[in-house]
């Protein structure tokens, strides 16, 4: 509820918020304790994120924080990637036709493999371009726990160090970052998958899945699932058509979604 209220979240009673936090924490702590007990009794024969973390630490709070982070990161993220991509393809039917030609050799009666999803360079470019234009997590913030110095970013040329006070929140706007013409070329607001043939943004210029040690662990899974969907869709449907003329309009809670939805039609053969 605090997320949906946004800047008005102060209207929500703090006691109610703490009660909900406690409910979530108690539920996760119960599962952690059960997994820890299985580990102590040597009866654990399961493989999961929880059991893998228990093999590295028995700190309940640390494990709980990691689980909540993982649950947050999996909230509709792949579904939004697919929705945003279909929104763009419905307005660029010539790209859909090119994808169809590239998937024509795949056997629709056989299970897709990871290797199948990697055969089409255009398919990968389409997904990267979708993430560039409409990152699922467009803004990310970090809080400095101690006084620190960032090595670069200050001064007229952005090469001088920057002092950061403890407690300072530093937001990163990926939506704006992904529209840098010096990195992504001209017309950065335009859906042009082929631009990826000539650009090579580094890990801190394209942040579709974050970066560094806290980068999304599920990025390969998300891209594989979205690729599988698009491969099967282009095999089954000869055309995709937009059913409205509304622009993409972002609404950010935990993730950013198009408030106008994805209204389009898939035309079968």
Descriptive overview:
Helix 2 packs across helix 4 and helix 5 runs parallel beside helix 11. The protein has 269 residues and is an alpha+beta fold. The model has no long low-confidence stretch (mean pLDDT 88). The longest helix has 27 residues. The strands form four sheets. The protein has a two-stranded antiparallel ribbon with strand order 1-4. The protein contains eleven helices and eight strands. 44% of the residues lie in helices and 14% in strands.
Q: What class, by secondary structure content?
A: alpha+beta
What characterizes the major β-sheet?
A: 2 strands, antiparallel
Whole-number radius of gyration? 22 Å
Distance between the termini: 45 Å
Strand order of the largest sheet: 1-4
Principal-axes geometry comes out as: globular
Helix % is 40-55%
Spell out the helices and strands N to C: HHHHHHHHEEEEHHHEEEE
Which residues form runs of ≥5 with pLDDT under 50?
none
How many strands in all?
8
Strand content: 5-15%
Mean pLDDT rating? 88
Number of helices: 11
Lay out the secondary structure.
Elements: H1 2-5, H2 14-40, H3 49-54, H4 60-73, H5 77-90, H6 93-103, H7 114-117, H8 121-133, E1 139-143, E2 148-154, E3 160-164, E4 169-173, H9 174-177, H10 181-184, H11 219-236, E5 237-242, E6 250-252, E7 256-258, E8 264-268
Helix pairs in contact: 2-4, 5-8, 5-11
């Amino acid at each position: 509820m605090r997320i949906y209220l946004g800047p008005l979240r102060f209207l929500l009673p703090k006691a109610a918020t703490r009660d909900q936090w406690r409910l979530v924490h108690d539920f996760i702590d119960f599962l952690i304790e059960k997994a820890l007990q299985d580990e102590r009794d040597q009866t654990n024969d399961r493989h999961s994120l929880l059991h893998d973390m228990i093999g590295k630490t028995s700190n309940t709070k640390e494990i709980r924080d990691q689980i909540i982070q993982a649950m947050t990161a999996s909230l509709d993220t792949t579904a939004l990637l697919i929705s945003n991509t279909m929104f763009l393809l419905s307005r660029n039917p010539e790209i859909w036709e090119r994808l169809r030609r590239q998937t024509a050799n795949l056997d629709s009666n056989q299970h897709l493999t990871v290797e199948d999803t990697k055969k089409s360079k255009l398919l990968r470019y389409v997904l990267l371009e979708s993430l560039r234009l409409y990152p699922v997590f467009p803004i990310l913030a970090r809080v400095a726990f101690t006084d620190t110095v960032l090595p670069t970013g200050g001064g007229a040329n952005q090469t001088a160090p920057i002092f950061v006070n403890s407690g300072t929140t530093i937001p990163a706007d990926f939506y704006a970052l992904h529209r840098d013409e010096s990195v992504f070329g001209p017309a950065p607001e335009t859906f042009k998958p082929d631009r990826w043939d000539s650009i090579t943004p580094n890990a801190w210029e394209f942040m579709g899945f974050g970066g560094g040690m806290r980068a999304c662990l599920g990025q390969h899974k998300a891209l594989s699932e979205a690729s599988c969907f698009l491969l099967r869709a282009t095999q089954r449907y000869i055309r995709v058509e937009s059913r409205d003329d509304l622009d993409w309009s972002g609404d950010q809670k935990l993730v950013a979604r198009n408030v106008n939805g994805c209204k389009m039609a898939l035309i079968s053969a």
